[in-house]
Structures are given as C-alpha cells and as structure tokens.
Amino acid sequence: MKLIAESGSTKTEWVLVEGIYVIEHAFTEGLNPYFQIRREISRSIRLQLPEAFFKRKIDQIYFYGAGCSSDEKKEIIKSSLITQFRAPVEVESDLLAAVRALFGKKTGLGCILGTGSNSCFYDGEKIIKNVSPLGYILGDEGSGAVLGKMFLSDCMKHIAPQELADEMYEKYRITPSDIMEHVYRQPFPNRFLATFSFFLHDHLDHPYVSDLVKQNFRNFFLRNILQYDYQDYPVHFMGLVAFHYANILHEVAAEFGVKIGQIQKSPMSGLVNYHTQSIHLE
C-alpha cells in the first residue's frame, strides 16, 4: 500500500494506491514547511485527512511539496508524516512531482504555473538545472500570486480601470486596508494574492486584464525559460494558472519561439502512473 501526496501552497492532494489502483482520494489545505512548523503540519494532516487513510497499513509514503527543496525543510514534512503513519517517507519537491508526471522517464523542460511558479531541465531521472523561482516577492513570475499582486497593486495605485477595481472590492467584500493586513500580517499571503487570479480569469475579455496576464507570462519566459536550452526540447506545463490561461500562454510562448507540449492541471494521475510503473519495472 502506497500513500502519494502532492502539495502546492494552496491545497494538498492525497491518494492511497494498492497495486495499480487508487482506493482513497482526498484534498486538504496546502502544506509548506517555509510557512508552517512541524506541529502545524501534523495537526493539519490529522484533522483534515479522512480517517480511512489512517486505518490502512501503509508500506511507503511519497510526498511532493512546495517548499521542499532543502534537506532541512524536507525533514519537517518527513517527521510529521512518520509521526502520523509510522511508515517510510520520501519527500521531494513539487517541481520533481511535475516533471515525473509530465515526462515520466523522458527528457524535457518542465514548468509549474500555479499559486507559485518554477521551472527546470529534467533528464528523465533527476532535475539537472533549475532557475531559482525566488518566491512571490522576488520571483514567481507567471504565477497566480504574482498576477494577483500586480492586479491589487494597480487597483490600490488607481492604475487599474476603476470599474474593475470597484467590482473586485465588492465581490470580495474587501478594502485596501484589508488587503494590506492580509499581505503583510496574515499567514500565507501568496495564497491570498493568488485568489485574485480567478477574478482576472473571469474578465479576460477586458484589454487591461489580457495585457496584465501577457506581461506576467512574458516575465516568466524572459527570466526563466530563456535561460535553458529551450529550442531543442518540448516545454510542458503543470498547474491551474497554466491550464486556465492556456490560450494566452500559447500566444506568449510563440512570441519567444517556444514550443509548448502538454499543459496539465494536476500531477497526481501522472504520479500514480510513475510509481505503479516503477513497481512493475523493478
């Protein structure tokens, strides 16, 4: 019995796999060791994951998560999972989850465009080049968090069209003071910022919005993709932002001569295939 979990900053998807079959499937809030201590992660798992997950004997846990890039951060997740399940745990980054799901054991350029963003060159076994994403303050170009940040900044500086700003304030029942509180004083500001990417998606026919999204994606290509050998390999994308803004993503990619391959919302089905196929190969 295997437990596979994939966590972005917003949500965590969990599946229990027996042989090649998924027998349990659930979602909880996102788990990120950069923003949560071990106790908070353990509490979230215990309280939000259905009891059925704790009643099975698990032989191996594979956890992929945002913020799981260093050994120190991986250990926070690992110790939390061992405490809950008493099973061996392998913790890897959400970026490795994306490329394992997208490429399997093939070579290519893999990207995440979700709450945050990331990119890498994957040789079919491991990530051999990674332009640091730097997070939503210094980087994360192309992400939902940065898209939301750009939009809210424009609203509060009176750069965004007033009708859009007014509709946003009314829809979310929020004020500029509330926004400052959420961004600078509340936990998970990146989740909060990414929420507004959904509002923008509903207004893609507005020239201001389409231009804002295009500029966000251009920044992602300029500051990330162009640093790889992108002309010789397919570029695959994972994440809700990539999926929902696929038309604009293709348009911007064409500006840079980048050929896009797959665009998937979630890596979980690919991860299940990867780990079950690995069993058969072994």
UniProtKB/TrEMBL annotation:
InterPro entries: ATPase_NBD, Euk-type_GlcNAc_Kinase. This is N-acetylglucosamine kinase-like BadF-type ATPase. Gene3D superfamilies: 1.10.720.160, 3.30.420.40. SUPFAM superfamilies: Actin-like ATPase domain (SSF53067). GO terms for molecular function: kinase activity. Keywords: Kinase, Transferase.
